[in-house]
């Protein structure tokens, strides 16, 4: 969308404090449904009547559930997907989601295909009634796609008649949204995949209700692994842990790309099949960018194999970044920039190490956890240095905590030798030495503690 960041679970309102309409939105339906489940558990804590409506529900029944309180409980939560009514910014993307869901198969796959197909038709102002071949051809011309139209025809032929039409339910949702906070006994928990940003009903909910982001969160590896295992289970496919890790790396942890590729691999494997890391390597292009922080971590771990692999990746033409910040430099300047970044990190490691040794603190203890680091180390690093009158250690404590962790496996002498050797590598690069070979030799020497 992208929606604003999801509030921590502890920050979500209780049912009695919640607005009448809550929207859970995100780019991948798996994470939307997962987050909606968590929000529902939070709202229903203490008891509530829960009503779930699918696409076949009558609009009159849905509207009645939204606008009237329960006869059996003081609290009612109405769960409803509104993706097809909110639309999307990309008809082409909806077409791809429909094809992907159909090829994925199973109840969940067909649900995705029908939902995306209805949203696409709604976005284009077309009706699902009529000849499927003619309708698919018209859609193909509008979105300038020919590939996949035969599959889209199959979807249209099987598309159930929609009973819960938007015109019948949207007025009830708007009326509910306009009720004063908090709710009067009914909360609509809505879900939407890839709704348009900053406009329409989603924007109204953000202003008057509550918009919750559904994303991978901080544990991207764990979230994407859950997605892969669940999608594979739906089709009776086995996916190796190494395959998930390889796919996560190749897609640069992009949730949409990961979901699309795992869906394609599951379709390829078929029921009873198995996906191995080699299958991912053969069929999924490695489009991941390379993070210089990962190189720093490899150096800090004294893991030569990983560090040299990352040097190779830096010079194979892919995008380079430091965290979320892209490193946009000319290819001829890149070797010097990388050398400069490595030596800056080594210098920081040596400064932290020297400061701790001077204070008589054990490096391993100081870098054990952030709490210990903040209480024992940061006050030392924050001290002013003469004649500058300020600390040399500016920035987030987390930055220096990670530096301290990397420095804990080196001696001050090893780091000093590494810095002394850096000008030699700079001269080699200026004399047209192959960049990856020169930097690989330098990093290998740093890790080995070469004199």
What would your notes on this structure say?
- The model is unreliable at 1-6 (pLDDT under 50).
- The protein has 3 domains: 1-215, 3-Layer(aba) Sandwich (Rossmann fold); 220-283, Helicase, Ruva Protein, domain 3 (Orthogonal Bundle), CATH 1.10.8; 291-448, Zinc Finger, Delta Prime, domain 3, CATH 1.20.272.
- Strand 2 (49-53), helix 2 and strand 3 (76-81) form a beta-alpha-beta unit.
- Helix 10 crosses helix 11 (241-250) and helix 16 packs antiparallel against helix 20 (412-430).
- The longest helix has 26 residues, at 334-359.
- The chain has 21 helices and 10 strands.
- With 451 residues, the chain is α/β, with parallel strands linked by helices.
- It is globular and about 75 Å long.
- The strands form 3 sheets. It has a 5-stranded parallel β-sheet, sandwiched between helices. Strands 8-9-10 form a 3-stranded mixed β-sheet. The protein has a two-stranded parallel ribbon with strand order 6-7.
- It has helices spanning 29-43, 59-67, 83-86, 91-104, 106-123, 132-143, 149-158, 166-177, 200-208, 220-234, 241-250, 255-269, 277-283, 292-301, 304-314, 334-359, 363-366, 370-381, 397-407, 412-430, 435-448; strands at 21-26, 49-53, 76-81, 186-193, 210-213, 238-239, 274-275, 290-291, 320-322, 325-326.
């Amino acid at each position: 969308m992208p929606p604003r960041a999801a509030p921590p679970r502890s920050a979500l309102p209780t049912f009695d404090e919640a607005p009448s309409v809550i929207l859970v939105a995100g780019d991948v339906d798996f994470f939307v449904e997962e987050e909606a489940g968590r929000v529902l558990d939070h709202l229903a804590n203490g008891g509530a009547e829960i009503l779930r409506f699918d696409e076949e529900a009558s609009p009159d029944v849905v509207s009645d559930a939204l606008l009237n309180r329960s006869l059996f409980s003081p609290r009612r939560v109405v769960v409803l997907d509104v993706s097809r009514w909110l639309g999307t910014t990309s008809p082409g993307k909806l077409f791809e989601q429909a094809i992907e869901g159909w090829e994925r198969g199973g109840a969940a796959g067909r649900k995705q295909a029908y939902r995306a197909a209805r949203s696409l038709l709604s976005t284009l102002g077309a009706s699902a009634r009529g000849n499927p071949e003619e309708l698919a051809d018209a859609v193909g011309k509008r979105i300038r796609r020919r590939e996949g139209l035969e599959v889209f025809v199959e979807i249209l032929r099987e598309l159930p008649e929609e009973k819960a039409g938007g015109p019948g339910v949207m007025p009830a949702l708007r009326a509910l949204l306009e009720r004063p906070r908090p709710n009067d006994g009914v909360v609509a928990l809505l879900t939407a995949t890839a709704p348009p940003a900053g406009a329409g009903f989603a924007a109204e909910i953000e202003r008057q209700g509550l918009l919750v982001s559904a994303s991978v969160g901080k544990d991207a590896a764990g979230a994407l692994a859950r997605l892969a295992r669940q999608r594979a289970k739906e089709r009776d496919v086995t996916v190796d842990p190494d395959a998930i890790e390889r796919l996560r790396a190749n897609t640069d942890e992009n949730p949409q790309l990961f979901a699309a590729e795992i869906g394609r691999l599951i379709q390829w494997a078929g029921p009873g099949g198995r996906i191995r890391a080699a299958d991912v390597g053969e069929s999924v292009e490695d489009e991941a960018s390379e993070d210089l922080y990962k190189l720093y971590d490899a150096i800090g771990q004294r893991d030569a194999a990983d560090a040299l692999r990352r040097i190779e990746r830096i010079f194979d033409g892919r995008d380079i970044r430091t965290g979320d910040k892209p490193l946009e430099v000319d290819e001829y300047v890149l070797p010097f920039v990388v050398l400069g970044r490595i030596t800056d990190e080594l210098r920081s490691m040596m400064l932290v190490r020297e400061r701790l040794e001077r204070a008589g603190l054990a490096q391993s203890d100081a870098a054990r956890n952030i709490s210990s680091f903040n209480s024992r180390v940061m006050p030392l690093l924050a001290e002013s240095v003469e004649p500058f009158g300020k600390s040399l250690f500016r920035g987030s404590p987390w930055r220096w905590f990670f530096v301290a962790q990397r420095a804990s496996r080196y001696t001050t002498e090893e780091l000093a030798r590494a810095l002394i050797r850096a000008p030699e590598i700079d001269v080699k690069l200026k004399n047209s030495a192959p960049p990856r070979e020169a930097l690989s030799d330098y990093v290998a020497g740093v890790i080995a503690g070469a004199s």
